[in-house]
Design brief:
Layout: H1 2-10, H2 18-21, H3 24-27, H4 34-51, E1 55-62, E2 72-78, E3 83-89, E4 96-98, H5 100-112, E5 126-130, H6 133-137, E6 157-162, H7 170-183, E7 191-196, E8 210-213
Parallel strand pairs: 6-7
Antiparallel strand pairs: 1-2, 2-3, 3-4, 5-6, 7-8
């Protein structure tokens, strides 16, 4: 639920692979075309045999609400890493693409990253890591490099929800925290987006967010 909350509350113009998986229950429609679902699953199987042979198709998704960059996609899971992702046909190029690396890297980093410590925060912060899948696809085969997520071309956005109003010390503390991620070699490049919310999840500070980019 925390990923869904933050993405809805603060995400504008950032597309992640793993984060999108959480919206499946809200986009699947019983009126979807079963023939098209079967077709996308079959084509996804062929795609995976060539690009991700250890992954398998587990179903499909139909988006009739415009939440995704596709209408139909196959859902898949990599059996080695247990990573869930999508396979779909890009509308502009006509090529089939996947969100595997976006989902994989997001999951891995969310497990590795320790939340920042901020003044006057008693509750645990919520954090989501998001990669732009289009930028990952532009890496070509280089995305299969185990350290590809560290490249500046695919620098992720880290979304953090803080349950209070903004403090003067926040930027300094968030910047120091981001630099510590670089020193630990967890990430080299990133944008941190901090939203301030009420106990009910409403955006404070008139929706103005704090940004720190390294």
């Amino acid at each position: 639920m925390k990923r869904w909350f933050i993405v809805i509350a603060s995400l504008v113009g950032v597309i992640g692979g793993g984060a999108l998986m959480m919206t499946y229950a809200f986009t699947h429609d019983m009126d979807s075309d079963e023939t098209r679902e079967a077709e996308i699953q079959q084509k996804a199987k062929t795609y995976l045999e060539k690009h991700l042979p250890k992954a398998k198709v587990t179903g499909s998704i139909y988006d009739n609400m415009g939440n995704f960059s596709f209408e139909y996609a196959a859902r898949a899971v990599d059996e080695k890493t247990n990573t869930e992702f999508f396979v779909y046909q890009d509308e502009e190029s006509g090529r089939f693409v996947d969100t595997y690396h976006a989902s994989l890297w997001e999951d891995q980093l969310e497990r590795r990253i320790t939340l920042p410590t901020l003044n006057d925060v008693n509750a645990e912060l919520d954090m989501v890591v998001l990669f732009d899948n289009d930028k990952i696809q532009q890496l070509g085969n280089a995305r299969f490099d185990s350290k590809a997520y560290l490249r500046t071309e695919v620098a992720p956005t880290i979304l953090i929800s803080v349950p209070r109003k903004q403090s003067e010390q926040d930027k300094t503390q968030i910047t120091a925290w981001a630099k510590s991620l670089r020193e630990q070699k967890i990430l080299q490049y990133m944008t941190v987006k901090v939203d301030y919310v009420s106990e009910k999840g409403e955006l404070l500070e008139d929706g103005n967010s704090l940004f720190v980019t390294l």
